[in-house]
């Protein structure tokens, strides 16, 4: 059922005459995004624009990002029963080769061919793309892609502390993860992400900057970072839960491509004056990463969980009781060493 829909959709896309493409690279891996309008690339390409490469590459992944409203050869909604999808995922329709993610809004669909490494990102109209999708473009497709090798998207931030490497800043929404990353970025440290990052096991565990956009709640922006209000990309979007910032545009010199992972920091907002970092265990680290990652990315959870567990077991892990003062947190992060 999914295979037939995928092949039919890909055939119609291949018949279109107005397809352009752009090449990207993350680490040693390259991918190509094919698109049928400049507007859809503008909507979904800004979060990954820092990965752009201009030379011709032998790409490992191909994504077809299509605005269905402007296609000559129409692709219609699948006939699948929406009730079979929970959080966009249907175990009944998931196969070893073909994966499908179908959000409840029904205004977009993502499909992936594990054999050919081809992803389809189909949108009814550009105007219907949710604001949050633009901050982690093609997240579901990237996740399916990494199932075949030792890399994983994880719900985490990452800040480069020194030349030696970076720390993952983990935790559920509201734990202080994004605020900590933005505060440390403004404190002079390198930025690799505040919401989703790409990790990969090479000689050691590495973290790569996959997205350069940050999301922050309105109250935090206005109270702690009022000077950034002028950079908000979606300030006119009524009902938006968080404001979006293009950190690659605001802080281009602070963007880092990759770093060795030195450890995992789990922040907690305590509104105290002190900033205290103390050792914790693997279970705490796993619980700070796995639940939300596996909820957002439901395909092949066993594979993803094993990668997250291997990362957490092998890394030094710490709780970070945050001070209410950003400068104190920055000093604590700067002075922190693995043996302390």
TrEMBL record:
Lineage top rank: taxon: Bacteria
UniProt-recorded name of the protein: Serine kinase
């Amino acid at each position: 059922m999914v295979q037939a829909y995928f092949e039919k959709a890909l055939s119609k896309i291949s018949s279109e005459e107005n397809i352009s493409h752009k090449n990207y690279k993350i680490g040693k891996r390259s991918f190509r995004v094919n698109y049928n309008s400049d507007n859809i690339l503008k909507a979904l390409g800004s979060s990954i624009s820092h990965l752009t490469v201009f030379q011709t590459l032998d790409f490992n992944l191909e994504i077809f990002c299509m605005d269905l409203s402007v296609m000559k050869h129409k692709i219609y909604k699948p006939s699948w029963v929406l009730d079979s999808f929970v959080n966009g995922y249907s175990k009944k329709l998931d196969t070893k080769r073909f994966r499908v993610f179908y959000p409840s809004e029904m205004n977009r669909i993502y499909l992936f061919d594990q054999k050919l490494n081809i992803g389809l990102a189909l949108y009814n109209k550009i105007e219907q793309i949710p604001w949050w999708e633009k901050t982690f473009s093609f997240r579901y497709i990237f996740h399916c892609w990494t199932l075949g090798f030792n890399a994983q998207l994880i719900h985490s931030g990452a800040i480069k502390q020194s030349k030696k490497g970076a720390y993952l800043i983990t935790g559920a929404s509201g734990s202080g993860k994004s605020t900590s990353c933005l505060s440390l970025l403004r404190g002079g440290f390198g930025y690799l992400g505040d919401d989703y990052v790409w990790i990969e096991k090479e000689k050691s565990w590495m973290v790569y900057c996959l997205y350069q956009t940050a999301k922050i709640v309105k109250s935090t922006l206005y109270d702690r970072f009022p000077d950034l209000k002028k950079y908000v990309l979606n300030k006119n979007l009524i009902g938006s839960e968080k404001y979006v910032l293009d950190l690659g545009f605001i802080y281009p010199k602070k963007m880092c491509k990759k770093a060795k992972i030195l450890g995992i920091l789990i922040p907690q907002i305590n509104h105290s004056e002190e900033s205290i970092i103390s050792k914790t265990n693997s279970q705490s680290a796993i619980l700070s990463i796995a639940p939300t990652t596996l909820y957002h990315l439901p395909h092949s959870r066993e594979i993803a969980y094993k990668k997250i567990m291997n990362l957490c077991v092998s890394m030094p892990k710490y709780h970070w009781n945050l001070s209410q003062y950003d400068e104190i947190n920055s000093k604590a992060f700067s002075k922190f060493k693995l043996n302390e």
